[in-house]
From TrEMBL:
The entry's keywords: Signal
Name this polypeptide is given: Lipoprotein
Keyword Signal included in the entry's annotation: yes
Source species: Streptomyces collinus
Residues of the signal peptide: 1-26
Organism domain of life: Bacteria
Length: 205
């Protein structure tokens, strides 16, 4: 999610103590599966005036997710991500993580969803000049399941941003998708983002 204030950017490195610490993978765990596939630009929620552009699939954890989701409290995984942008003020990112077991992936998906669910409260607690509200848009019946949530932030000086975030799982693989732009909940393409999330999980393998 593109964040407009340095205060919110700083949250990416703040302690996310609310997250559950996951057990590290056991030695001799299952071998790596084939690398999961990513969304293409055409599979993002359509922008009314600008086409999406997809960046390359890149190793590492995307900095833009750090406001709500981070690597803190989880084992070290091989993170891969792809960022998307339009010519205007809208962006998106997809993260994939392959865990060693389905049980670890299930715990990781819950951990990330919990971080997203509590993100608004943590933002307001850390930054009194920011009002934040989260919404739950429910689960999706795809593979081992996915959940979609929304987050709106507004600063005391009037900067306002809306994001949609989802966490889904297919076996040992977890994916997180985030879409964001300036605006509020009325500007969020929830139905289209649910379709994007379903496609993202189905497309992993």
């Amino acid at each position: 999610m593109r964040i407009r204030t340095s205060a919110l950017t700083a949250l990416a490195v703040a302690a996310l103590a609310a997250g559950t610490v996951l057990t590290a993978p056991a030695a001799g765990a299952a071998p790596k599966a084939a690398a999961p596939k990513f969304l293409s630009a055409s599979q993002l929620p359509p922008h009314p005036t600008s086409a999406w552009t997809a960046g390359p699939v890149t190793e590492g954890f995307p900095e833009g997710l750090g406001t709500c989701v981070s690597t803190e409290g989880v084992p070290s995984y091989d993170y891969r991500h792809r960022e998307f942008r339009t010519d205007l003020d809208t962006g998106a990112v997809q993260l994939t993580i392959v865990a060693d077991t389905a049980a670890l992936a299930k715990a990781l998906a819950k951990h990330y969803d919990d971080l997203i669910r509590t993100c608004a409260d943590r933002i307001e607690k850390a930054y009194p000049d920011v009002e934040a509200e989260g919404r739950d848009y429910g689960t999706l019946p795809v593979e081992e399941g996915a959940r979609v949530r929304g987050l709106h932030t507004e600063t005391s000086w009037g900067a306002t941003d809306i994001s949609l975030l989802s966490v889904g799982r297919d076996g040992r693989t977890v994916t997180v998708v985030q879409w964001g732009q300036m605006g509020d909940f009325g500007d969020a393409p929830v139905a289209a983002f649910k379709k994007t999330t379903t496609t993202a999980v189905n497309k992993l393998y």
